[in-house]
Amino acid sequence: MAALTAGYDVIRQPLGQILPRLSAVLAEAVPHLAAAELSTHCAHSPFKVAGEAPFATRIGAADLEPLFLAGVPGRPWQGAATIAGAERPVVAVMSDATPRGALLVLVREAGALPVEEGALAVVQALWSLVTSHFDRLATEATPGALARSRAAADTRARVIAELSERHSAALTGLLGVLRSRNLDDAAARATATELAVTALMELRTETDRDKAVAEERADEAFGRLADSLRALLRHSRVQLELGPLDSVRGVAADVAHAARAIVRAVVLTVLEQETTTRVRVGWQITEQELRATVRDDGPGTMSVCELGSARIADRLEVLGGRLEVDAVPGWGTTVTAVVPLATPAAPASADPLSSLGARELEVLARLALGHRNRVIAQELHISESTVKFHVAKILTKLGVASRGEAAALFHAAA
């Protein structure tokens, strides 16, 4: 009965408080320093940790991944694992109540006594109950919650891909310096340090800079790409050529950002060809599309499959674009990424609410309940004029002419 009461107390908490409450409930049976979970059902926040800072904040998802891969649902495991940079005793509990599994790890103090079988059974039962609750919430999620989760998952995938490309570009530049025969040891160290510092500064400022603008001038956007490619190839044996671009047309920030990332990924793939000595990069902008071209003088055997590892085609597909590869053996390869400048129309079967942001979904949910602008403003603690702005954006994104049509669309999706 006590376990049932404890389970009910845990699952009735708001989502953000479930793990801290579960940790507190289990503390008596299994004393621990921190509790961490890796729940693959949750696209919004699959990794969570609860415990006292600063120790809890040093635990990362990578610490849990080996335990997740080795875990067996219904069979709690206790032993030593590397957590927060040190070997620590842990209790790892796996559940298969969600389609892809969920892991709970209790990190214990050094020298802690083994946990009794009865206590392990309680931990397993409570974690299975909690993950069953998670699965129900995911299955019965409202359209707004699903849209936020999908948006978060898409954003996370994009950020991971872009950070990977930036790290790869920075490391390639450093390797070019270290392999250069034109620099002595002191000059190589100084140049490598400069490249590393520059890469760190760009990583730290890129997010804020991209958030600050909704549109970029085409020539300035290409200039930013040119600067990053020059730094990448400064000490490489490969010569960089940049095609002229004097267009001052405005380009949506997400299109410019994606075009830069795609070109960098293609260039990094081209550099893996041993016989390449020259790379030419250019952008061509028309009323309908941006064409980013990378041409090399390599063996001319590159295919779309070789570019697939960089997820270039996937990123273009999201933007409604396409990838063209023209390889001529002995002469080189030309890779062209075509990105539409207009937002591609969503498929008829797509979730109609997926285009809305988190705040717009909150406004739409209240609008669908028949609330007036003043009431919505009071509930969301924003001004009435801001509500009017959000409503106008919602009608535009959903392609409807009235609040009633937007409300009907929301209810239909729900």
UniProtKB/TrEMBL annotation:
InterPro entries: HATPase_C_sf, Sig_transdc_resp-reg_C-effctor, Tscrpt_reg_LuxR_C, WH-like_DNA-bd_sf. It comes from Streptomyces agglomeratus. The keyword DNA-binding applies. This is Helix-turn-helix transcriptional regulator. Residues 349-414 form the HTH luxR-type domain. GO terms for molecular function: DNA binding. The keyword Transcription applies. GO terms for biological process: regulation of DNA-templated transcription. It holds the Pfam family GerE. Keywords: DNA-binding, Transcription, Transcription regulation.
